[in-house]
Amino acid sequence: MATVTPKFPGTERLVVTDPPPDIDDVPRVSCSRCGRTWDLAYELDELAVGNRALERFALDHRRHTGHFPDDVTPWLVECRRCPDEDAFLSEGPARRFAATHARHTRHALDVYPPGSDEPDPVEPPELSGDE
Ligand SMILES: [Zn+2]
Ligand SMILES: [Zn+2]
C-alpha cells in the first residue's frame, strides 16, 4: 500500500463552510453582443451597491448600449413622469418599488416583465378624502 502525498503540500483545497461576508469572488457578467465580460468590482467598490450590483450593471449597460447583458433580463420599472427608471431581478421588489413610488409621488409607472414590451401599468392610489 502506497502512501499518497499531495504533490504540492499545503495547497489542498480548504473547505470553507462559513464564507466571510466580504466578496472575494467578484461576480462576472458577459454580453455576447458586445463580446466582452466584465466583473462587477466597479459596482461593488465604487458604487457600493452591494447585492444590487448586477441590477445596476444591467441597467447601466442598457442605458449605454441599448441592450441587456447575457442572462440578465430584469424587471424594469419606469416612471411616466420622472426620467429615472430602475431594474430588479425579481418581481417582488420591482412591484414594491413601483407601488411605493406611486404612493409617494402620485405618478403612474410601467412595470415591464423580463423581456417584455408590454408594460403592466401601476396607477397611483386614489387619495381618500382631502382633495
Ligand atoms: Zn452589451
Ligand atoms: Zn415619478
Termini separation comes to 89 Å
Number of domains: 2
Give the radius of gyration.
Answer: 22 Å
**Helix and strand succession?**
EEHHEEHEE
- Mean pLDDT over the residues: 83
Molecular structure report:
- This protein has 3 helices and 6 strands.
- The chain has helices at 41-45, 53-65, 91-105, and strands spanning 28-31, 36-39, 75-79, 85-88, 109-112, 120-122.
- The chain has a 4-stranded antiparallel beta sheet. Strands 1-2 form a two-stranded antiparallel sheet.
- The chain is elongated and about 50 Å long.
Give keywords:
131 residues, alpha+beta, 2 domains, two-stranded antiparallel ribbon, 25% helix, elongated
Q: How would you summarize the topology of this molecule?
A:
Blueprint: E1 28-31, E2 36-39, H1 41-45, H2 53-65, E3 75-79, E4 85-88, H3 91-105, E5 109-112, E6 120-122
Antiparallel strand pairs: 1-2, 3-4, 3-5, 5-6
Bound molecules: zinc ion (2 copies).
One zinc ion binds at residues 31, 33-34, 61, 65, 67, 69.
